[in-house]
Amino acid sequence: MLIDIQYLNSSAFEDDFQSPFYQIIMLKEQRNFAVDFTNYICPHYSLVFLSPYQHFDLYDLDSRLIKKLEFHGDFYCIEYHKKEVACNGLLFNNIYLSPFVTVTPALFEEIESIFCKICIEKADDSPFSESVLKSYLQLILALCSKVKSRQLINTHVYQDELTVGLKFQKLLEAFFLIERSVQFYAHELALGLDSFSKKIKRELGKSPSQFIQDRVVLEAKKLLHLTYLSIKEIAAKLGFEDEFYFSRYFKKNVGISPSSFRERVGISIVAK
């Protein structure tokens, strides 16, 4: 099934959970969780967005049911539909933003009702059902992207100048393919190593080394999913000495090999 709705007990997330699907997890109450080993606390009425093979750990396990929608990239390609729903890089695939969006109780209830409609539509044998399901999914993504975008605009309105965190983001985007030492970025920002690391952790919630690693892994996932480049070509493009070193690096951080990731997640219809 390329799209599915599940009602899960918290215990279903007791172990580090990964999936080849994109996932939307509805959390009605405040919850503690980790995505890619970074801890978060989300308020009431939040939705967590996970890309394929992101690590997810839910804490405070209890009997409360959690609603989860998952869909495969072959069913709905977020890159292909980026003009209609700008969720790629906003809800999914952005290492700098929190992986959740908090909405109003009314919107949370509306999204819950769309989840129910998806469950009903899945049972329909109509030849139009797939189109209806995609429309429901697109509506959820569009509603959440709209909220997230507004929240980011409101945050940036009050920033008169670039913070150390924002400067680091710009530097990392420019140099992550060739510079992976924390010392390089600290030097570029004219800061001591310890001071730089503490500022980034305080402003962005993760250490500089974690951001560097996450950015390399994100790029590797993009190249595996959005191109037909061979593993060897991807390794070279990312600056690894050889494909074997790259494969070990990828498996250590993602949990599966690059070839397995490509096989299970698939190659996007926008691949060139």
Please state roughly what percent of the residues sit in beta strands, choosing from under 5%, 5-15%, 15-25%, 25-35%, 35-45% or over 45%: 15-25%
Q: Strand order, biggest sheet? A: 1-7-2-5-8
Which class best fits the helix and strand makeup?
A: alpha+beta
CATH architecture annotation name of the largest domain: Sandwich
Largest sheet: 5 strands, antiparallel
Portion in helices: 40-55%
Q: What number is the mean pLDDT?
A: 92
Provide a concise account of the structure shown.
The protein is α+β, with helices and mostly antiparallel strands and 272 residues long. Helix content is 46%, strand content 15%.
What does this structure look like?
By secondary structure, the chain is α+β, with helices and mostly antiparallel strands. The protein has two domains: 3-157, Sandwich (Jelly Rolls); 164-265, Arc Repressor Mutant, subunit A, CATH 1.10.10.60. The chain has nine helices and eight strands. A five-stranded antiparallel sheet has the order 1-7-2-5-8, with helices on one face. The chain is globular and about 60 Å long. The mean pLDDT is 92.
